[in-house]
From TrEMBL:
Example of a GO MF term: phosphatidylinositol binding
Gene3D superfamilies, alphabetized: Phox-like domain
Organism, scientific name: Glomus cerebriforme
UniProt keyword annotation of Signal present: no
Domain of life the protein comes from: Eukaryota
Bilayer-crossing regions: 53-74
PANTHER family for the chain: FI18122P1, SORTING NEXIN
One matching Pfam family: PX
One cellular component term from this protein's GO annotations in UniProt: endosome
InterPro entries: PX_dom, PX_dom_sf
Sorted UniProt keywords: Membrane, Transmembrane, Transmembrane helix
Name of the protein this chain belongs to: Phox homologous domain-containing protein
UniProt domain PX: residue ranges: 1-75
């Protein structure tokens, strides 16, 4: 899935709106970094954090089946 950081932020926000009782279970996203964002170590750490976020959401029995997630994946 090729998405920008802002796409992940939107997904997380929409998931919280769609499933507010699961708010505390939805993982946080890695912080946005202005300086040094092209450093290979930062890029790899962020990629792993985003992968964890998406994997957690997709494997969750409720969150992974919400229309918000389905539309996000095909958009």
């Amino acid at each position: 899935v090729k998405k920008r950081y802002s796409d992940f932020v939107k997904l997380r926000t929409q998931l919280i709106k769609a499933q507010p009782k699961y708010r505390k279970l939805i993982p946080s996203l890695p912080p946005k970094k202005i300086v040094g964002k092209f450093v290979p170590e930062f890029i790899e750490r962020r990629r792993k954090d985003m992968e964890y976020f998406l994997t957690y959401i997709l494997l969750h029995p409720v969150l992974g089946t919400t229309p918000v997630v389905k539309w996000w994946l095909i958009d």
